[in-house]
Amino acid sequence: MVEWEWDPVKDRLNRLNHQGLSLAAGIPALADPLAASRPDPWPHEARWQTVGSAGGIVVLFVVHTEPAEQPRGRLLGRIIGVRKATAHERQAYEDGTF
């Protein structure tokens, strides 16, 4: 099972900028078995963009790092940003073309 972490300051900023969505809101979207991911073009670290359904209610766009194995077998990733998917991203998720 993947454990997710995030910066609390980044979480507050995400809530302010994205309709109150916390970074923790991205966890269900990342666990969606139909979630789709692609590399994020951020030049300073390896990041991923993932679209997935959060509880079947809303499709979210999540920016995160690739989970990496930690001591004692923990699998840990970092959530960087969460927002509602755009209409185009939601359609690509539904079509399987993201």
Topology readout:
Blueprint: E1 2-5, H1 8-17, H2 26-31, E2 36-40, E3 47-54, E4 58-64, E5 68-69, E6 75-84, H3 87-95
Parallel strand pairs: 1-6
Antiparallel strand pairs: 2-3, 3-4, 4-6, 5-6
Question: How would you describe what is shown here?
Answer:
With 98 residues, this protein is of the alpha+beta class. The chain has a single domain, classed as Roll (Nuclear Transport Factor 2, Chain: A). Helix content is 26%, strand content 37%. It has helices at residues 8-17, 26-31, 87-95; strands at 2-5, 36-40, 47-54, 58-64, 68-69, 75-84. Strands 1, 2, 3, 4, 5 and 6 form a six-stranded mixed sheet that branches. It is globular and about 40 Å long. It starts with a strand and ends with a helix. The model has no long low-confidence stretch (mean pLDDT 95).
Q: Which descriptors apply to this entry?
A:
globular, alpha+beta, Nuclear Transport Factor 2, Chain: A, 6 strands, 26% helix, 6-stranded mixed sheet, 98 residues
Task: Give a brief outline of the structure.
The chain is an alpha+beta fold.
Give the CATH level 1 class.
Alpha Beta
Q: What is the count of structural domains? A: 1
Relative strand content:
35-45%
CATH homologous superfamily caption: Ribonuclease toxin, BrnT, of type II toxin-antitoxin system
What CATH architecture do you see? Answer: Roll
Write the CATH fold name: Nuclear Transport Factor 2, Chain: A
General form: globular
Helix/strand/pairing class, anyone?
alpha+beta
Q: Would you tell me the overall average pLDDT?
A: 95
Distance between the termini: 24 Å
Total number of strands: 6
Rg is: 13 Å
Largest sheet: 6 strands, mixed
Topology order in helix (H) and strand (E) letters: EHHEEEEEH
Total of DSSP H or I helical runs spanning 4+ residues: 3
Share of helical residues: 25-40%
List low-pLDDT spans: none
